[in-house]
Amino acid sequence: MRRLRAIAAARLPGIDPSLDVVVRALPGAAHATYAQLDDAVCRALAKALR
User: Most CB atoms closer than 10 Å: which of 5, 17, 38, 46?
Assistant: First the structure.
């Protein structure tokens, strides 16, 4: 959970402050590496902000 929070916090400065962003951790996130989580968050944000 801390890794995901740190990844999301690092990405938030690049997002419009008027948007609400919710990051939900699925059970598989507990076994993912930091790089895998970072990639997943990056891809999800890119998709959501299109």
Answer: 38
Q: Which two tokens stand for residue 45?
A: 């944000």
Question: Where would I find the H helices in 1-50?
Answer: 2-11, 34-48
The separation between CA 7 and the C-alpha centre of its own chain, rounded to angstroms, equals: 6
Work out the angle at residue 16's Cα, subtended by the Cα atoms of residues 13 and 22, and round it to the nearest 5 degrees.
80
pLDDT digits (tens, 9 = 90+) for 28-50: 999 999 999 999 999 999 999 88
